[in-house]
Amino acid sequence: MVDIIKAKTGSIFEDKASYSRVVSVDNWVFVSNTAGRNPETKEIADDVLVQLDQVFDNIETALKAVDSCLADVVMSRVFIQDPADTHTVMDAIGLKFKGVNPASTVTCPPLGSTVYKVELEVTAYRGASKAQVKEIKIAQ
């Protein structure tokens, strides 16, 4: 039998759109696209890096709720509102994922509101942080 956990934060957006912040299916963990809104104050900063810090805080809280962590992330999808912010955002994400090295997609689509400067969605595999990893080079 498959174990599935669906966790919500209580956000009005989750209720309106009928989604969970995080869903784990056995050891696979899927975190919904996450913005940098502070869950306590409901505010969102103007600065892209402050938003990104909050995005990571929100994602780490979601992962922890299902006994996972940022080091378990195997795929990230980065959504940046303004293409001019791409290098700044990716430099910061590179520091956060140093040594984790997930597969990644980066795109600059319009987001749900212009106040959102960056959003992140991740897929993790519970326990990946403790797995033996073999890194290889792909010949071109």
From TrEMBL:
InterPro entries: RutC-like_sf, YjgF/YER057c/UK114. Gene3D superfamilies: RutC-like. SUPFAM superfamilies: YjgF-like. Pfam families: Ribonuc_L-PSP. This is RidA family protein. It comes from Marinomonas vulgaris.
